[in-house]
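Lab channel / #folding
Pinned by the channel admin:
"Please post every new chain as: sequence first, then the structure tokens as a reply. Keep commentary short and put observations after the output so the thread stays searchable."

First post following the new format, from NK:
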Amino acid sequence: MRTLQDKRLFLLDMDGTLYLDDRLFDGVKEFLARIRERGGRYLFLTNNSSRGVEGYMEKLGGMGIRTERRDYLTSVDAAIDCLRRRYPGKRCYVQGTRSFYDQLAAAGIPVTCDREDGVDILLSGFDRELTFQKLEDACILLERGAVWLATNPDWVCPTWYGSVPDCGSVCEMLTRATGRRPEFLGKPRPAMVQLALAETGFPPEQAVLIGDRLYTDIACAVNAGIDSIFVLSGEGKREDIERDSIHPTWVYDDIGAVLRAWEETP
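Reply from TO:
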């Protein structure tokens, strides 16, 4: 029988799971400390491509959590891995933030913001700097037959006042306009979990993914063959489980409840 006591590698979603905007949820610091005290490892997994790891390090640092680059895996990492393996040397038009663009360029990916610059691939991400020009460029490139990749299918990104459209919503708008659909690279695809297992050396049975979205976080765990914890502190609701037919291993209200359950495990 699977128990939380068996887990040593914790793959943690961020927005809606650890915090909401700049508000850290209760129990997060204690949970992270206990993982390391028990000889475990945690990695922060996020579909959000709008900021670099340095931005997350600064954000969590401002909440009192010190982290290193090695503590993160993002949908940008998954995109870079895919582009290197499957599309080496192909030029990408980046429909995303400047940070997203800079991360790809730093990794040696040929990138451009000019649709006439020999574009092979349209790469879409969560874009807090979205303009109509980018949407028009994307439509033109898709009509020309460019390969379409996108970092994540999340419909919304949670904020303190509600939600804003995420990459999945913008991609759906482009699909309505062009009839094309992207290949998504981040969660729920298993690539980020596979990268995490390869990097840390933990076997799948010792890993668990914790997140607030069934259709990305929990589906990613299912697709990767590891256990999952669905927390109700962000976008997802308990009733979504039967509606979406995506079944987590465990369900808890928040990270604080996960910590209490883990501590109570014999």
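NK: The chain has two domains: 4-47+190-264, 76-184.
TO: also worth noting, The longest helix spans residues 75-86.
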